[in-house]
Specification:
Chain lengths: 486, 488
């Protein structure tokens, strides 16, 4: 029995977030009335010409720099020709033999042994990244089809990996990493529901140990991150089944139906398009000099995985917290700002408040982080109040909820609502402590015999006597002093 | 005795307008009347907007009376080849495909002419999508040569030449991809200028072959051509292939510039196929320049024999791509007999395009196809570089080149329409200039025994139109062929 392995390469399309389209000034965007983001150039009216949008080229060069690609010295344009109603010119302006970015790699993280453990990291090599224009959208109805050209001409980059992945999990991790990187770079929002991130997969299988690639199947319409994982897993299973049944795989393009979890053949190799690429005579090659690249390099942020490693090392916070913070660049920045203000030893508390309380409140209110009224300084102040014993946990939760609603400083809220721990009357506290020790001989004996946690048994009655407002730190200190004497 | 109003030059008419001896409305009315008189015989126009023309003329008169005239073109009726977009006007490329298309936007040259005050009165017939040398490929029927109505005015900008020669415009614009301005200028006894590639914005010009197309003027005189060129030249942010270069005052330069001293005569342009009368007229023009003290030197452009093949690979490849947008989906002709999407494409295009356009689309599709690209398109691009190099080598020895424009004078309508290869040979002296991206102009240099105009071609150096115009101007001043007009 031969063992087979899968080989997967991904072609990922990422819409670049620019104000205007890639070859004309009309605005780019999602969710507008059909055919309102058009102009004579987008509609390919007779006589119109494309003019390159520099912001789109900036963005793809930045993406290339983030992924360690070589940036070509010249950006050259080609026409990719095929007839389809979503393509107004019936050719797409793209890059064929001279992509702007060559090589590079995407760092991925595979699932760890447990949720709280970092998984294995790998680098998936890239073949190229090139720039092209997006096409419009067809809406099919019972007897006709309508075209919306709002999307047509939106800058789009195609990130092509080497056939270097083996599992659906790797593909999933690859896509996640690309998404995080593009969001960090401000290059794209990568919202798959809005079509800002799209993925096709090339999948083949071969006997383990074989160097030659097997017959390739291109799987299209992997329109959500989970479809990518499910679709690839399904295709690998399908190919293994074909081979196991003594069948032969054919080179083809298949369409994946994520809802049904099935795929069907779109076209075979013989039906493949001849795109008749040739250099676009309407666009001049653009030279990318060192100064231009250096400027974009300065605008490149720290990569998500680098930041994760740094947060773990510098702030001593657990992996699980970083894995919540890292995918959201703004959230991880908010963590850093707060942790720095909160001071040494309080980073984990900062992480917990952000990943538990803040995210829960934002989720409940359906708000983005940018709409949060809690400043880093105020959250740091809250954590310091708790740490100083001024604020008890239950009260702190209440203060936090008010901060979220009003944006006020915690001290203001504490004062207004009278939530501070009881002012320390040391005499009264000491009396309660003595009473509690005297009332619990068993716990006293256990503590004396070295069971430190026995001290907690004395705290309940003290808190009860203090109506919950005693400073727990002071209670603990007083108890220990008295127990030492007892 | 001065010529009738409709045969006068921009220079003459603008002086009269400036002096208040003539109003723009009177001039436009005269041109409209002339147009109505000749159009049934010449068929130079695809569309004509009399109310719009008169409104533009009236606006020009208002400006002038307010002391705000825009210059030499203010109030001058100018016709545009029907491949140049004018907002709110039909734009057909002489094709059934665009028979009902109205452009919602202006070409850059249209805006420039409007800013200069020109009265844009009509859109002129041409070969369908500017493919041809006789206007016989127009879906709306050919134009006739005003000098002999049984003959072609040339093409593809034949309507632009015929209208001007017949007095139905004071100047016109055409487009030149392989000779489409110069050849009709030669056949109709006019000055026709194809500027350096990149001097004029192509935004709003229906593309035939993007790397070769260039808009340029037809005029009665070199001075008028200089005025027109000055109005339309210059970098356009909407055309990436337009060049950032200072635009001189071409008209003023005519008087201050010395004509180039060394003229090259490419021996390859005087071989078999050259009509003896045309050859003799060009030889006389060469003799004139020699008599003026110019050094005449025979030079060689060794790759000339490959020009036609190279052109028909590159131009058709680009055309096959440029014309893909005419699919019946968003605008233009759409078949009524479609069962499915493929039918919409195939039948709309089969019905909408004429034979020559189809021929070039098929040829262009073929040369770009997988497995043929290297042998045809890529090789043609390399040959194109060699052809350009031929010219640049020549310019190390001489300042400009002098050749015939067309190997033959105007031929009979129908004479070549059944034989595409014979038709392609009409462009044999003009095509190299487009492949090399150079400026060139045709100017009248005499008539045949039977009274047909003959054209002389001067080929200049990149972006040195001022030198080219000065060289032509000195010849024109000494001859005056342009004071003769067709009798119709």
């Amino acid at each position: 029995m031969i063992n087979y392995e899968a080989v997967i390469g991904l072609e990922v399309h990422v819409q670049i977030k620019t104000h205007s389209k890639v070859f004309t000034r009309v605005g780019a965007g999602f969710g507008h009335e059909p055919n309102t983001l058009t102009d004579p150039v987008v509609l390919a009216l007779p006589g119109t010409l494309p003019v390159m949008n520099k912001a789109a080229l900036d963005a793809i060069i930045k993406a290339g720099l983030l992924l360690g690609c070589d940036i070509a010295p010249v950006c050259k344009w080609d026409r990719k020709q095929y007839f389809y109603p979503d393509s107004p010119k019936n050719y797409q302006i793209s890059q064929y033999d001279q992509p702007i970015c060559l090589g590079g790699s995407v760092e991925i993280e595979l699932p760890g042994a447990a949720r709280n453990l970092m998984g294995e990291h790998k680098k998936i090599p890239l073949t190229r990244i090139h720039l092209e224009e997006d096409v419009g959208k067809l809406n099919h109805h019972a007897t006709d089809s309508l075209v919306d050209y709002n999307r047509a001409g939106t800058p789009l980059m195609e990130i092509v990996s080497e056939p270097a992945m083996q599992t659906a999990e790797e593909a999933f991790a690859y896509l996640t990493s690309i998404r995080n990187t593009m969001i960090y770079g401000g290059i794209s929002d990568c919202d798959m529901e809005k079509g800002q991130l799209r993925c096709d997969a090339n999948i083949s299988i071969r006997p383990v140990g074989e160097k030659k690639l097997g017959t390739k199947v291109e799987l299209k319409n992997l329109n959500s991150i989970s479809y990518v994982r499910d679709g690839i897993a399904h295709e690998i299973k399908r190919q293994l089944a074909v081979v196991a049944a003594g069948g032969k795989l054919v080179q083809e393009t298949r369409d994946y139906d994520g809802v049904a979890g099935t795929s069907q053949s779109l076209r075979s190799k013989e039906m493949a398009h001849d795109y008749r690429y040739f250099p676009d005579p309407d666009l001049m090659p653009v030279h990318v000099d060192e100064g231009w690249k250096a400027e974009l390099r300065r605008a490149c942020p720290e990569l998500p995985f680098d930041k994760q490693r740094r947060l773990i090392a510098d702030y001593q916070i657990p992996y699980t917290i970083t894995s919540v913070l890292i995918p959201d660049r703004a959230l991880s920045n908010f963590f850093e700002a707060t942790a720095q203000l909160a001071g040494m030893g309080r980073s984990q508390a900062v992480g917990n408040w952000i990943t538990n309380d803040l995210l829960r409140e934002l989720g409940a209110a359906k708000l983005p982080l940018s709409a949060s009224k809690i400043s880093a300084a105020n959250l740091a102040a809250l954590i310091q109040l708790i740490d100083a014993g001024t604020l008890l946990n239950a009260a702190a939760k209440e203060v936090f909820a008010t901060m979220f609603a009003t944006g006020e400083a915690p001290v203001v809220i504490v004062a207004r609502l009278g939530l501070a721990a009881a002012p320390t009357d040391t005499g009264e506290l000491e009396a309660w402590c003595r009473e509690s020790i005297a009332a619990n001989a068993k716990a006293l004996a256990e503590f004396k015999s070295g069971k430190d946690s026995a001290i907690n048994a004395f705290k309940g009655p003290i808190m009860k006597a203090a109506k919950g407002k005693a400073n727990p730190k002071l209670v603990d200190e007083t108890l220990r002093r008295l127990l030492a004497e007892a | 005795m001065s010529a009738p109003l409709h045969f006068q030059t921009i220079a003459e008419l603008s002086a009269k307008l400036a002096a208040g001896q003539l109003s723009a409305v009177e001039l436009t009315q005269a041109i409209i009347a002339r147009t109505k008189a000749i159009e049934p015989r010449v068929h130079a126009f695809n569309s004509f907007d009399e109310p719009a023309a008169l409104a533009l003329a009236a606006a020009s008169d208002t400006r002038r009376s307010a002391g705000q005239s825009s210059g030499a073109l203010d109030g001058i009726p100018v016709g545009l080849k029907d491949v140049i977009a004018v907002a709110g006007q039909p734009l057909t490329a002489s094709s059934k495909m665009l028979a009902n298309f109205v452009s919602p936007y202006d070409a850059t040259v249209t805006q420039k002419l409007q800013r200069a005050g020109a009265v844009l009165h009509g859109r002129l017939n041409c070969d369908e999508f500017a493919m041809g040398s006789s206007t016989e490929n127009s879906a709306f029927g050919p134009s006739s040569n005003p000098w002999d109505l049984t003959r072609t005015p040339g093409g593809s900008s034949g309507g632009s030449a015929a209208a001007l020669a017949a007095g139905a415009a004071v100047a016109t614009l055409g487009s030149d991809t392989g000779g489409s301005i110069r050849q009709p200028a030669a056949l109709c006894g006019l000055v026709g200028l194809k500027p350096t590639y990149g001097l004029i914005s192509r935004y709003g010009l229906i593309a035939y072959a993007s790397s070769l197309d260039q808009i340029g003027p037809f005029a009665r005189t070199v001075e008028d051509a200089a005025i027109m060129l000055g109005a339309i030249a210059g970098h356009d942010p909407r055309d990436s292939t337009s060049f950032k270069t200072a635009i001189p005052d071409y008209r003023a330069e005519l008087k201050t510039r010395r004509s180039p001293w060394k003229l090259g005569v490419p021996k390859e342009y005087f071989g078999a196929g050259l009509d003896p009368e045309v050859g003799a007229a060009v030889e006389k023009a060469i003799a004139f320049y020699r008599s003026q003290g110019c050094e005449i030197r025979e030079i060689s452009l060794p790759h000339t024999q490959y020009c036609l093949d190279t052109y028909y690979i590159i131009a058709t490849a680009e055309a096959s791509s440029n014309l893909a947008r005419y699919d019946g989906i968003r605008y233009g002709h759409r078949t009524s007999a479609a069962k499915d999407l493929l039918d919409v494409y195939q039948k709309s295009r089969a019905e909408g395009f004429g034979d020559e356009v189809k021929r070039r689309i098929i040829l262009g599709t073929y040369v770009l196809s997988s497995g043929y690209y290297d042998a045809y398109y890529l090789r043609a691009q390399k040959v194109r570089t060699l052809i350009r190099q031929d010219f640049l080598n020549a310019y190390r020895e001489v300042d400009a080149l002098i050749t015939p424009t067309s190997p033959i004078p105007a031929f009979k309508l129908g004479e070549k329409s059944a034989d595409p290869l014979a038709m392609y040979l009409c462009d044999i002296y003009t095509i190299g200039v487009n492949l090399a991206g150079l400026p060139a102009l045709s100017l009248p240099c005499g008539f045949t025994q039977s009274g047909l105009p003959i054209g002389l071609q001067l080929i200049g150096q990149p972006f040195r139109e001022a030198d080219l115009l000065a060289t032509a101007h000195s010849y024109e001043q000494a001859h005056g062929w342009n004071t003769q007009f067709p009798s119709l």
